[in-house]
Amino acid sequence: MAGRSITEYLNPWKLGREKQRQRLDALRKRDGDNCRRCRRPLRFDLPSGHDQGATIEEIGSRPADESLDNLCLTHRRCNA
């Protein structure tokens, strides 16, 4: 418990959203603003459920591996 923040216990959803935002920013910096599948521009200003919004897709064969090498950015409709 020494290395953990109290935020993890009091508000785990906020921590999850922050981690998701950090991964999204890192992937955006690495891959740019285009969808990996259709090569069209992604929209980052849309709500999370919108079909033209950005989502993180697992591209490797190991789903438990959450490293950035196993992830890419796609539209929600392209990842369906």
Computed CA radius of gyration, to the nearest angstrom: 14 Å
The main pleated sheet reads as: 2 strands, antiparallel
SSE sequence, one letter per element: HHEE
Average pLDDT reading = 83
Strand order of the largest sheet: 1-2
Tell me the helix content: 25-40%
For the secondary structure, the number of strands is 2
Oligomer: single chain
Give the overall shape: globular
N/C terminus separation = 38 Å
User: What percent strand?
Assistant: 5-15%
Q: Low-confidence runs (pLDDT<50, min 5 residues)?
A: none
Computed structural class: alpha+beta
Number of helices: 2
Kindly describe this structure:
By secondary structure, the chain is α+β, with helices and mostly antiparallel strands. It contains two helices and two strands, in the order ααββ. Strands 1-2 form a two-stranded antiparallel ribbon. The longest helix is centred in the first third of the chain and has 20 residues, at 12-31. The protein is globular. It starts with 6 loop residues before the first helix and ends in a 5-residue tail after the last strand. The model has no long low-confidence stretch (mean pLDDT 83).
